[in-house]
Design a protein that fits this description.
mainly alpha, Ferritin, 59% helix, binds fe (ii) ion
Length: 195
């Protein structure tokens, strides 16, 4: 496994420019920016579970990098929020390792299918702290809902993966609460950052 994923991160605020593509997201394999990744296969197959694990792992990696990047990027973010983002980067790192370990146990290759870095690209295009926080909140809500659904669906066939997804979903609720604490506005337009 590539050491840039597992050992040296989260690095905290690493600079102003987005760094995600600088090391190519290895060992994940990216699809071209103007293409969508292949749809996941049926969830009642090993390949389908693997597709969901791979997508979830890559979402955690993008979230980790984005939180660490945001902590150094947004001068308009209160100091407490920057520190909170660094903590969330560490939490996303832990989620990533949990999923990678599950993939290892199940024999799911990280690079077997391409993934999209659209989440990272859209987050790092956000112009200020509030829009970043709201856009990320939206992504985390979406991820939490998907993980809860996977947990429910897999509880009979793969209880270990199911409980892992349930645990991550619970922690995502705490991440969402951070965004709500600093930027409590609801009814987000979704149009503040490019998707
Ligand atoms: Fe996460
Ligand atoms: Fe999160």
């Amino acid at each position: 496994m590539n050491s840039s994923i597992e050992s040296s991160r989260p690095s905290g605020s690493s600079g102003i420019e987005p760094q995600g593509s600088a090391w190519g997201w290895r060992p994940f394999r990216l699809c071209p920016p103007d293409e969508r990744p292949p749809a996941p296969r049926a969830i009642d197959t090993r390949e389908g579970v693997g597709d969901r694990l791979r997508t979830a792992a890559f979402a955690e990696l993008q979230a980790r990098e984005a939180f660490a990047w945001a902590a150094g990027r947004y001068g308009d973010a209160p100091e407490g929020l920057r520190r909170a983002w660094e903590g969330l980067a560490a939490s996303e790192h832990r989620h990533l390792l949990m999923i990678l370990e599950r993939m290892r146990v199940l024999g799911i290759a990280t690079d077997a299918r391409p993934v999209s870095d659209a989440l990272w690209r859209s987050l790092t295009a956000c112009p200020d702290a509030a829009s970043f926080a709201r856009w990320m909140r939206r992504a985390e809500e979406r991820g939490k809902t998907a993980e809860e659904r996977f947990a429910e669906r897999l509880t009979g066939s793969d209880p270990e993966t199911a409980s892992m997804f349930a645990e991550i979903a619970r922690e995502e609720a705490a991440h969402i609460a951070v965004a709500d604490r600093y930027f409590p506005e609801r009814g987000l337009s979704g149009g503040e950052c490019p998707a």
